Each structure stands twice: as structure tokens, then as C-alpha cells.
Amino acid sequence: MKKSYVDYIIEETQKILAIDSPSGYTQNVADYLMKEYRKLGYEPLQTVKGGVLVKLGGKEEDNAILLEAHADTLGAMVCERKGNGRLKMTPLGGMNPNNAETENCRVITKSGKVYSATCQLVNASIHVNGEYNETKRTWDTVEAVLDEPVSSVEDLNQLGIHNGDIVCFDPRTTVTESGYIKSRFLDDKLSVGILLGYARYLKKEKVTPKRCVYQHITVYEEVGHGASATVPEGVTEILSVDMGCVGEGLECDERMVSICAKDSRGPYNYGVVSALVKAAQEKKLNYAVDVYPYYGSDAEAALTAGHDVRHGLIGPGVYASHGYERSHRDGVKNTLELLQAYLG
Ligand SMILES: [Zn+2]
Fold this sequence. Notes:
Number of strands: 19
Bound molecules: zinc ion
Shape: globular
Number of domains: 2
Distance between the termini: 18 Å
Largest sheet: 10 strands, mixed
Order of helices and strands: HHEEEEEHEEEHEEEHEEEEEHEHEEH
CATH superfamily of the largest domain: Zn peptidases
CATH class of the largest domain: Alpha Beta
């Protein structure tokens, strides 16, 4: 039974990953999510700034919990049209030029045209560029090379490509037979899939959680203000469902659900973290409690914006975050089961 929810989550995650949605260009993914929530039998609302808010239901309306995952991803924007027809980019969110280099991408113009391109080092041929190895990769030293015969700004004008156009990087999604999920932007589309899976579970199993549950799919998390608005009345707790950190010194791996005790902006609510750990222990889930050295979450954005709530953060373990990321279906399963156990 549980397995079918995990399968649904992975299928949905793949569909969501296939819709380009860097911060600032998220309408298409929001439209898809609105449709999917309606299919599940809910009545989603689109927020003014573009997110998706859904009331899943439950008792205790004055002690409600808001689950948050973000559908926006890293990406880039054209910031200078070079005289040779190449495009200089500025990052959207923390896109890192070291691993954006050599990735296929799409340039989306204001008129909706989509052009294929590659993010390359400037002067990228190693047989020509003697400085290839020594060049530090920055957004000044990589550029988008369009797959069009362009060699001037006039050529770019002809194509309708201008500053402010969005650049979307290929997610390169792969799911292996062994259950690993590899893709850019599993942060946080894997958790969006998990929230859909939890919403489906409530409907299918006719479960009424002991507290009223809302879900908010935010669209500006990667630039810091995703969840700063839209906290429904009665919400006393916000739980971010976002990627769990995996790396040296941390205990989580891709098969586990991570419970974050503290990140770079401070500790999570002690009562919430303790209750999450207790729920994971009781269900004998494969989990880890970790401290994330370089991380901030939507739940913290809500607190910073002035909302009086308790806050927590959980998510499936994701390795190589903000790069070519990897997680595993067991991490998905453990995260879903922690939500089920915690929300009752
Ligand atoms: Zn994230």
C-alpha cells in the first residue's frame, strides 16, 4: 500500500522536474500543481505572489499546521548581451557556475520563445585556451552559447533575446533500478512530490489528522522570501519539508529522513524537533538529526516576516545539493511516513 504512494511521489516529482521553474518564472509549475491538487479532490488557491495554498482538512482549526515545500529552483537571467552574440548571466538563487558549466539550458524570451543553449566557459576549447585549467569559474567567466547562428547584438535582436530573459538549466532527471533519484532541483521538487503524496494519502485512506493541515507550495524560497506571507488563520506551527543535508560530519544519507535541529539562522523550535524525533522513533523510521552549517528555510522566512509560530524542518536526504543532486526512494518513504506519524 505504502509503496504505491512512493511510486506516485516519484512519478509526480519527475513531472514537476520537467517543468522549468527558476525563482521568478514559476507560473507553469503552479498551474500544474493547481490541476494536480484539484485531481486529488482539493480546492487549491493561488496566492497573489504565485504560490499554491491548499487546505487538506483535519480537526483543531485553531491549532493548525502549515506544511511548506518550494517549487522554485535555481536558474539564471540574461544580464548582458555581448557583441559576439554570447549571453552573460546573473544567477537566480545560489546557482553555482562551477557546476552550471557545460550544462544544457533554455533561454526563454519575453514573447515566450525558447532557445536551446549551453553554459560554457568563455573561450571553452582546451586546444585554444591556455588558461582553461587556471580560470576561476564565476558568472563573469561563463556564458550562454546559443544553438543559433548568432555573432552580434543585432542577431540577438532578430531572435528577440534581451536582458531579463530567463535561463533554465536541464535537470537531467534519472531514476535508477536501485532506487536512486538523480537530478538537479530535487531541492525542493522531491518534497513537493512528497506533499502531493501526503495529500493523496489523506483522501484515499479517508484520514482526518488531529490538527487541521494546510500545504503551501512556495515559489520564492531560493531567494529568501517564499513563505514570508500566506499563513492562514489558526496556524500555530510551520513545518518546512525541504531537502535534508547530506555530507561530511552529518549523519543523514539519501535513504533517511533528516530532522534539522539547527541551521545557519538558528535553532528550530525545541518542542517541534523533540516531537518529530519521538514520532520517528516510535515508527522505527530510518532518520537522522543534524545541524546544517549553510542553510535557511521557508519556515524561518515566515518567522522573520513576523509570524508567531513554532517551526521545524524535515526532508529526504539529498546529496550534492545545488548541484547534480541525488536522493533515494527510501528517503522519500521515510519522509512520508514521518509526516503520517507526526500529523496523526
Ligand atoms: Zn530548498
